[in-house]
Amino acid sequence: MKNTFISVEGPIGVGKTTLTNILAKHLDSFALKEIVEDNPYLKSFYENVEEYAFQTEMFFLCNRIKQLEDVQKKYLDRGLSVVSDYNIIKNLVFAGLNLQNGKFQKYRQVYAILADQLPQSDIIIYLYGDTDLLMKRIEMRDRPFERNMSRDYIDRLNREYQHYFDPCSLKHYFGTKIPKVISINVNHRDFVNCPQDVAYVLKEIQRVHEVSTSSQEVQSC
């Protein structure tokens, strides 16, 4: 597939980067990965969410916008494909969870302005799983800034993602271009050790891509 932008999304610990690396290799695409550790507010945020939420979310927004602008110029505009371990919509997911309503409304206005001209994903692979599984994976990877993360926070984040990726919600958050969404429950999936699980995702991507291409051909006639 040429000039296709695929994003892998889902809550913390669901396996986004792992699947992104695997798909990028299989699809001969550039793997775009979000920069997390460089956020200077992140450690303070997990220690005091209310105090540092706005600074943390604004840093992530500006950082991801720059990444997406660069990937547009270097890859998508040249007809190359990209697999990303995030979609820009995650900024709204986390901001909606972490910001008080007044600040969230201001943040959403800024988001709408800045995100309007960014490249939009053709396909989003939405990964989801039980909160207990996410907590286990977070513990196993043992990132320093995630050590104080509570189960309650991950559970609320999990439910926030479920809201945003509910089929009835998509049109409210993705503007004029609503991506094709492939939802995958990871509770019984192992993309590292089970080739059949990877094959399933690749088959779903191909199916969705073919349907999307056919629709575009019909509309152009």
Brief account:
With 221 residues, the chain is α/β, with parallel strands linked by helices. The chain has helices spanning 16-26, 42-47, 49-74, 90-98, 101-115, 131-141, 151-164, 170-173, 195-220, and strands at 5-9, 30-32, 82-84, 123-128, 180-185. The protein has a single domain (5-220), classed as 3-Layer(aba) Sandwich (Rossmann fold).
- Strand share of the residues? 5-15%
Tell me the total number of β-strands.
Answer: 5
Indicate the CATH architecture: 3-Layer(aba) Sandwich
Q: Largest beta sheet, briefly?
A: 5 strands, parallel
- Work out the count of structural domains: 1
How many DSSP H or I helices? Answer: 9
CATH superfamily: P-loop containing nucleotide triphosphate hydrolases
Provide the CATH top-level class: Alpha Beta
Please list the strands of the largest sheet in the order they lie side by side.
2-3-1-4-5
Structural shape: globular
* H/E element sequence: EHEHHEHHEHHHEH
State the helicity in percent bands: 55-70%
Parts with pLDDT < 50 across at least 5 consecutive residues = 217-221
What is the rounded distance between the termini? Answer: 22 Å
Mean pLDDT: 90
Would you give the CATH topology? Rossmann fold
Roughly how many Å is the radius of gyration?
17 Å
What structural category arises from helix and sheet content?
Answer: alpha/beta
Characterise this structure.
There is one protein chain. The chain is an alpha/beta fold and 221 residues long. It has helices at 16-26, 42-47, 49-74, 90-98, 101-115, 131-141, 151-164, 170-173, 195-220; strands at 5-9, 30-32, 82-84, 123-128, 180-185. A five-stranded parallel beta sheet has the order 2-3-1-4-5, sandwiched between helices. α3 runs parallel beside α5 (101-115). The longest helix is centred in the N-terminal third of the chain and has 26 residues, at 49-74. It is globular, with a radius of gyration of 17 Å.
